[in-house]
Design a protein that fits this description.
six-stranded antiparallel sheet; alpha+beta
């Protein structure tokens, strides 16, 4: 969903919300609303503008939760580099209450990689994109290792989390709750069925990505042999 030329509906201490024009991108994320603004600049960098995504946590976010969000994001960023957009986590007051915002560099989703329904399009497309295949290989290896060692499942449940951008580069666009913590299914007496579904779907889509990538690699090799 997108709503053009809107204003942020909250009083946010670190932003001049009266002057900031935004487009509402999503209200269906995990406890966050997402807006995008074009040509934004910070006061100390008036000569540098960029498209920015603003993510506002819609529930009360404790300092401990904010620390976990930052830690999980930093873990992915350190492993996956440019696949993960630059982001800043800010503790500020939203409507008078302490909460959390994320300011992230905006990328335009062009193709949803984690959607099995478009496998017939994804395989020949990725066969033509060696850089994207290398990026996706790195992504799959990293998140599988994290799952095995730490029982954290990458969020592939969200819409357009893992995409090709308009330059055909792989981007993982989520910032809040980038992992589902699988051990929560066993540490509490009555785990939320919503969490179980998100983990199940995310793992199924990760398996799909592996299969799709293998088929794209095979097709790329077949095309190269025919061309030689």
């Amino acid at each position: 969903m997108a709503k053009e030329d809107a204003r942020l509906p909250s009083d946010i201490a670190c932003l001049d919300t009266d002057k900031l024009r935004v487009t509402l991108i999503s209200t269906v994320g995990a406890h966050c609303d997402v807006w995008q603004t074009a040509g934004y600049h910070f006061e100390k960098e008036k000569n540098r503008t960029f498209d920015m995504v603003i993510k506002r946590h819609t529930l009360t976010c404790t300092p401990t939760e904010a620390k976990i969000y930052r830690r999980d994001y930093a873990q992915l960023k350190n492993l996956l580099h440019d696949i993960i957009p630059e982001a800043i986590f800010v503790r500020t007051r939203v409507d008078g209450e302490h909460n959390l915002l994320v300011f992230a560099r905006a990328f335009t989703p062009w193709f949803n990689l984690a959607n099995p329904a478009v496998a017939e399009d994804a395989i020949p497309l990725m066969a033509k994109l060696p850089k994207a295949r290398r990026q996706l290989t790195l992504f799959i290896e990293a998140v599988k290792r994290i799952h095995t060692v730490e029982q954290k499942v990458i969020d592939l449940y969200g819409l357009d989390n893992l995409v090709l951008d308009k330059n055909k580069d792989v981007r993982y666009l989520d910032s809040f709750e980038v992992f589902f913590h699988e051990d929560m299914l066993y540490l509490i007496d009555d785990p939320c069925e919503d969490l179980r579904e998100k983990i199940t779907v995310s793992l199924r889509r990760l398996e799909y990505l592996e299969d799709m990538l293998a088929k794209a690699e095979a097709l790329a090799n077949e095309i190269a042999k025919k061309a030689s």
